Amino acid sequence: MKDTEPGRVAALAAFDRSLDRARTAPTIVDSTPSLVPSRSEATTTTLCFHLGDLRVDLRLRAHGDLSSLSGLVIGDFDHVEVCLRRPEEHLRLFVRGDGAFHAEGLRRGPLALTMERPDRLPVVTDWFTI
Amino acid sequence: MLAACGGDPGAWAEIVDRHLPTVNRVARSYGLPRQDREDAVQTVWLNLNQHLPRLHHPHLLRAWLIRVTGDVCGRQRDRLRKLVPVDPHRLVAESGSALVPDVEDVYLRKERHAELYQAIDALGPTDRRVARHYLDDSPGAVPLSHRTTANERRNLLRRLRRSLDTTEPTKGVRDP
Fold it and tell me: Which of A2, A38, A129 sits opposite B17 (nearest CB)?
């Protein structure tokens, strides 16, 4: 076996067929932090995902080892459920009536979001790293 | 790939074992710190898992993985490059130029500016001229010592200080 190859355990853990039916919302904006020196200890990354009538804007703020995430679902929906996906971890986020959601204290690593609306196929974003 | 799409973890393990060395090699070529590289490699496999049902040509899988690994690692590298450690003293020095000004700082600076010019307007014509020369920090301005005499500057500073001392203390913070 090739257990010695770095990353094998994480690669095997990535296997998950539960969302094969979901549609993928590709990344249309991915801005890295600004080069301008800042007084703030946090660095902000902006991401935007788009699929059909749904768009998700995300702001990721890194505070040292932890990050926070603020997002806004824009589009035609009465009710939407947003779930934060990490390898071997799913966290349902509270979405306000205007589509805004928030999560903080996030450890570094890969992250994706799923959006579920009644009578629609779930939508998953590309994986990104915080 | 079909077996992996069908939910066979053994088939997925075969894909991982066949292509992980290539993914690691590409990731290492980006010179990322170990933890960032590991995050990037894991992101590649998570993306492959997500896109697997839409990949129809197994012979193109290696090229797909190389491209995605390059994209993910490149993004990670760009992010790290733009995190420029800055000396806090330099931040203070740059607070008036490169940094986006704080609203409160702008307000206080404007208030101090108005107070200073009010004091200058109260000076006599010679001192007023010297003071304006003194405050002229435009890039094309010749050195102050070429525009005013030492005596003029000394008198100006004394009168300006006296004038500022007698100005009614208002809101905001005065320069020390």
Answer: A2
